[in-house]
Design a protein that fits this description.
Layout lengths: L6 E12 L2 E10 L2 E6 L7 E8 L7 E6 L12 H10 L2 E6 L10 H12 L5 E7 L6 H6 L4 E4 L20 H14 L4 E3 L6 E3 L4 E3 L1
Parallel strand pairs: 1-4, 5-6, 6-7, 7-8, 8-11
Antiparallel strand pairs: 1-2, 2-3, 9-10
């Protein structure tokens, strides 16, 4: 790849992992995207330069199944702590699950949750909404849902805090939900989060 500088960021590293294998060079970034790989002996100009040394330079990882439980159950984790841990481990995009309080079952809740998430995250993000209500599937998609999550376990004691709001045990209802999800056309690529990186939905429905 070639592109003229100056760049927003240059990562100087000896081991850059690409689809073609490991190369030596310097990674150049502009507008949130990798636009060039310069040779190890070049000196491209940049606003910010990071010396990676002998550490490997790899693409950011994507975790499509995260439980931040924020708001509602932040004694376990929250968006700030969870996304910082993700970034430390090389995960640069996360998709959170809807088991919050209140659970993400409507478009209004999803919109509010996206604003809340954006105020506390340090990485890019997407959202897996709850698909328990077939009538909400389309509006959730328009509000920015990346995918839909369903719990199919049955809590006999009703002790799990997210049941029955996020659980579906009726097979006929589940089939209707799958039909409605299929109509949304998900997955499809959008943009979300604090940087221009693409947000891509995973498989349209996850049930377990």
């Amino acid at each position: 790849m070639t592109s003229a500088g100056p760049y927003d960021l240059v990562v100087r590293g000896s081991r850059i992992y690409t689809g073609a294998g490991v190369v030596s060079g310097q990674l150049a970034v502009r507008g949130g995207r990798v636009v060039a790989v310069h040779g190890p002996d070049e000196t491209p100009a940049a606003v910010t330069t990071i010396a990676a040394g002998d550490r490997p330079v790899i693409p950011g990882l994507v975790d499509t199944h995260c439980h931040f439980r924020d708001p509602g159950f932040t004694d376990k984790e929250d968006i700030a702590s969870g996304t910082r841990a993700a970034a430390l481990g090389g995960v640069t995009t996360v998709f959170d699950m809807p088991n919050t309080e209140p659970p993400i079952t409507t478009a209004e809740r999803l919109i509010a949750h996206r604003e809340h998430f954006g105020a506390h995250t340090v990485v890019d993000y997407g959202h897996n909404a709850s698909g328990v209500d077939p009538e909400e599937i389309a509006t959730l998609a328009r509000a920015g849902a990346s995918a839909y999550k369903l719990w199919m376990s049955y809590d006999l004691e009703r002790s799990y805090p997210h049941s029955p709001a996020t659980a579906v045990t009726d097979r006929a209802a589940l089939y209707t939900i799958f039909e409605r999800v299929a109509r949304t056309g998900l997955p499809r690529t959008r943009r979300s989060g604090p940087s221009p990186a693409p947000r891509t939905g995973s498989t349209a429905t996850s049930a377990c």
